[in-house]
Structures are given as structure tokens and as C-alpha cells.
Amino acid sequence: MSARPSDSRSAILARLKGPAPQQAEADALLIAPERPAVDESALEAEFLARLALPSVSASHDSIQTLADLPAAIARYLEGQGEPLSLCLPPDPRLAPCDWSGFTLHMSAAPEESAALAIARKGIAETGSLIFETAAEAPMLPNFLALHHIVLLAASDIAPYLEDAPLPGTQPRAHYWVTGVSGTTDIEGTYVRGAHGPRFLHVILLRP
Prior knowledge:
The protein is an alpha/beta fold.
């Protein structure tokens, strides 16, 4: 026999009341650090450790010079079984690179396999990447492509979120990316890349 409405209501209220929290647990929450510790002497290692977290789920590579960028991207795409097809932003810094062997697109279609972007800054605390919008840095390709490939100078990694303000002339807008997007359906199945790229690959340019 099913429970009467009044019995169900009583059971719910009883669960809501529950036992009072221990004073020690409450005190611990008040003195907990507001931000995780970051070793500022090893920012690159800290940043890469955040990229590897399941919540971020990004891969990475490194290059010594900008001339090495096309080979690094080709290595990644071939490892993913993807063609050497790339949406390339019209950033003049990329012009000297040898893109022979690639099929380059200046604008991204919804089925674009890969898009390259240059991050203005990385945050070691969270593994976040900060991008700006400009004529040479269009935003849309970074949300349409299956693979989001990001070039980040190792010298542009900052320790904490508070260090995020961008120096110099400010863009019309900027946006943050922390890993790939995902969602969980009503049955609890995790879907990766629900609102954007399914894969994030960061290429560090070391000095």
C-alpha cells in the first residue's frame, strides 16, 4: 500500500532537517584557502597539470620556434586520423609559417575538422585559456571545429585568475576556454563537445 501524502511530506521534512553539521567541519570551511596553491616558480608544469585533469581534458605539445608550428599541427591531426585541413586565422604572425601540405580555410564551416587560435594568456590555477576578438582573431571558428588547436606562448602563463586582466590595448571582447564543453543527459550519459569542439590541443611556444 502506498504511503499517504501526509506521511510522504513528513518523511521529506525529516530528511531536510537532518543532523546538524559538526562545528569542526563548519570552522574548516571558513578557514579553507580561497584558491589552490600554485607554484609560481613552475608555472608551465602547473598549467600542464591542469590541462590533464578530467574536467579540462586537453592534450598538449611544445615547440621551440614558430616555424615548428605547422609540423606540430600535422603531427596532432595525423595522430587523430584527421586530414591536414585547418581553419587558419588571418593573424600576420602566422604568415611566415610553411603551410604547404595543408588545406587552409579562412572561415569555418559547421563541419570544420580543426581550427587554430592564438591564446593571449593561460591561467595556471585552472588551465584556462584567454582569447581576444579582433579582425585577425575571429571567434566563431573556435566554436565550430571538432578540434580546437591553440598556440600559447609559455611566457604568457599567469598564476591566478586575478592575473587575467590583459595588458595593453583591450579588445572589443575576450572570452575564456577551460577544456572542452560537455553535458550529461537525463540517463547520466556524459556527452563531450556538446556546445563546441570535442577536442582541445594546446601547443606551447617556449622561448
